[in-house]
Amino acid sequence: PPGGQWPFSAHFSPDGSRIAVGLFDTRRIDVLSGDDLSYLFSPDTRGVQHGDLASACWSADGSTLYGSGKYWNNGFSMRIWTNGGRGSYRDVVVANDTIMHILPLKHGGVVYASADPSFGILNVMGQRVLFKSSSIADYRDNTKGFLVSYNGTEVQFGFEDIEITKLDTNP
After folding, report:
1. Per-residue model confidence as pLDDT tens digits over 3-25
2. CA gyration radius for the chain?
3. Taking every pair of C-alpha atoms in the chain, what is the biggest distance, in angstroms?
4. Strands 76-81 and 89-95, bridge-based pairing
5. 34 exposed, middle or buried (CB, 10 Å; 0-12, 13-18, 19+)?
6. What is the spatial distance between Cα 69 and Cα 53, in angstroms, rounded to a whole number?
7. How many helices (H) and strands (E) does the chain have?
8. Residue range 32-41, pLDDT digits in tens
9. What pLDDT band is residue 150 in, cutting at 50, 70 and 90?
10. What is the pLDDT of residue 167?
11. How far apart are CA 158 and CA 160, in angstroms?
12. Is residue 18 packed enough to be buried (19+ CB in 10 Å), middle (13-18) or exposed (0-12)?
């Protein structure tokens, strides 16, 4: 796609005439022709200052385009465009981590999954009607918070990211 070099998601519109390509390395989505992959347009991404819109999908009827990823706007957010991506938009805070995947629901709205992992549902009005946060501890960025005893028989960890400044090295 012309907008970036790292496509992350590609979803056909319901009629197959368009492909929404979410890009990992830019803050845009490119819409390509489903027939010959030529560039058609990019929806308005003004105001997307932090993150990306790597995950994109169409509504079940093709009238709405959804985009999210690492997009941060007072929380991990999803941008929702009217008129198949050519119209106005609104932003909705949807999760506590990167949105990894978005799928349309048969009767409108979308279901989405995030990296922490959590999932949720937005209805056709863009309102969050279901959200299931992660029920497991997230240790991805807690590399200094794991402690292992000298002989490896004991492990210590916390459920929050902590900074360890001094360790007692005596057994």
Report:
1. 888 999 999 999 999 999 999 99
2. 20
3. 68
4. antiparallel
5. middle
6. 5
7. 0, 14
8. 999 999 999 9
9. confident
10. 44
11. 5
12. buried
Statement: the pTM of the whole predicted model exceeds 0.70:
yes
The span from the CA of 116 to the CA of 58, in Å, is 24
Tokens, residue 43: 């929806």
> How is residue 32 written in tokens?
């390509």
What are the residue ranges of helices labelled H in 17-160? none
- One-letter amino acid at 7 equals P
Label each residue of 142-162 as H, E or C: CCCCCEECCCCCCEECCCCCC
Which sign, positive or negative, has the C-alpha torsion 79, 83, 85, 89? negative
Q: When comparing pLDDT for 171 and 44, which is higher?
A: 44
The amino acid that residue 24 corresponds to is F
- One-letter amino acid for residue 57 of the chain: C
